[in-house]
């Protein structure tokens, strides 16, 4: 038999002199207690620590009756519930009555998230808050209709931004915000369902599915950043900047020039991997792609032979401490700050060669484009060289050990096409 009783524990006095009223639950000779929001003082209690203040007696009785009514619907004589099951159900019913704040849950989830790109979720929630005009949203109010209005808001905001960019004569970026924001909110909503719903105990605090009949638009294709072989040669041949003493400066222009060529010649290596890579053996760099290493069984392993053309750069930026291959981490505290410095320098280089808004990622795009369109490398080899995931081959890849020869042979052909014979070996 399940019984409830309000009680105060003499040994549990708080630092402010109050006691919390507990609800003692007894079931099948097992005893557990639930805290309440009732706090009493010594004068509210009898000498035997029973409640004597009528106000608190009434509040405690109300909680006990509520628990009794909730548990009466559980049919304890039929179902084999434990006391923990009952407590979980009671807590679930309490949360139901309080309503779940989606914004608050999302911010707490983001704070404790360990996945890469958590900042994207913050951006999405900030956009939702800006749309709502408030920092709270009951999860029951997150409906298909609200999502449609939010989508219209994002599109209208982009239109204003695009008009301003056109007026200033600046590049208009691809429209990815709507897909990213809505996808992030959908993920957060599903995380809330996982957190609050206990399907084993049939405790469903979030029963709605607003995304079931709401179609999130696909992302627009990423802006094509590839540049021609001639422009890559121009970047390679650009003169360095020197100070008044004839010594090469440590500025972002020189850094950008070298890192762009390093990336192109190392099969489009990302700036984060250039910053972090630490394994060099017989002129072969082994690295694990930062962007996807945590999501892949092979840890996104990649091996690239260092072409002869960039051996001087390998020596120029060598880490004398030997902890990494390059010394970039001595000058930039994070991979992000390193990437920003490169892109800042590339803006100056872009003006010199006539490329609007030149970016570091153009090296990667250019390598892939030239490999397919000019050298005749098949797309599957290019796909592997860029270290992308092939979903269709995910299981097969478990059994195959890559030797990276096809990717490096493709790089040899691309290098010789752009820089001529002798560039690779």
Automatic annotation (TrEMBL):
All residue ranges annotated as the Core-binding (CB) domain in the record: 100-193
Alphabetized SUPFAM superfamilies for the sequence: DNA breaking-rejoining enzymes
Record-linked Pfam families: Phage_int_SAM_5
Keywords: DNA integration, DNA recombination, DNA-binding
Protein's name according to its UniProt entry: Phage integrase SAM-like domain-containing protein
Source species: Phocaeicola faecium
């Amino acid at each position: 038999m399940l019984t409830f009783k309000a009680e105060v524990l003499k040994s549990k006095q708080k630092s402010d002199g109050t006691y919390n009223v507990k609800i003692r639950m007894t079931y099948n000779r097992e005893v557990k207690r639930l805290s309440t929001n009732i706090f009493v003082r010594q004068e509210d209690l009898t000498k035997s620590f029973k409640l004597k203040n009528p106000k608190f007696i009434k509040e405690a009785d109300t909680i006990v009756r509520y628990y009794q009514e909730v548990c009466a619907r559980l049919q304890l004589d039929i179902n084999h519930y434990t006391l923990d099951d009952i407590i979980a159900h009671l807590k679930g019913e309490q949360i139901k009555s309080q309503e779940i704040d989606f914004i608050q849950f999302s911010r707490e989830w983001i704070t404790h998230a360990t996945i890469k790109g958590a900042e994207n979720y913050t951006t999405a929630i900030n956009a939702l808050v800006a749309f709502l005009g408030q920092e709270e949203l009951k999860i029951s109010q997150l409906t298909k209709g609200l999502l449609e209005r939010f989508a219209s808001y994002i599109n209208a905001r982009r239109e204003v931004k695009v008009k301003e960019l056109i007026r200033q004569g600046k590049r208009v970026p691809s429209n990815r915000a709507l897909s990213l924001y809505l996808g992030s909110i959908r993920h957060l909503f599903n995380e809330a369902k996982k957190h609050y719903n206990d399907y084993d105990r049939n405790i469903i605090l979030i029963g709605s599915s607003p995304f079931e009949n709401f179609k999130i638009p696909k992302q627009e294709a990423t802006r094509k950043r590839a540049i021609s072989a001639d422009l890559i040669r121009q970047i390679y041949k650009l003169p360095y900047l020197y100070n008044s003493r004839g010594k090469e400066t440590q500025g972002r222009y020189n850094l950008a020039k070298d890192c762009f060529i390093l990336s192109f010649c190392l099969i489009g290596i990302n700036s984060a991997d250039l910053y972090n890579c630490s394994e060099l053996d017989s002129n072969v760099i082994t690295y694990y792609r930062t962007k996807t290493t945590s999501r892949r069984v092979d840890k996104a392993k990649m091996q690239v032979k260092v072409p002869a053309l960039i051996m001087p750069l390998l020596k120029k930026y060598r880490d004398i401490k030997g902890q990494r291959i390059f010394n970039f981490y001595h000058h930039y505290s994070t991979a992000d700050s390193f990437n920003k410095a490169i892109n800042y320098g590339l803006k100056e280089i872009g003006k010199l060669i006539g490329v609007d808004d030149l970016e570091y990622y153009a090296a990667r795009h250019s390598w892939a484009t030239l490999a397919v369109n000019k050298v005749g490398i098949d797309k599957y080899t290019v796909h592997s060289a860029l270290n992308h995931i092939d979903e269709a081959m995910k299981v097969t890849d478990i059994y195959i050990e890559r030797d990276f020869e096809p990717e490096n042979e493709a790089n040899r052909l691309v290098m010789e096409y752009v820089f001529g014979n002798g560039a690779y070996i």
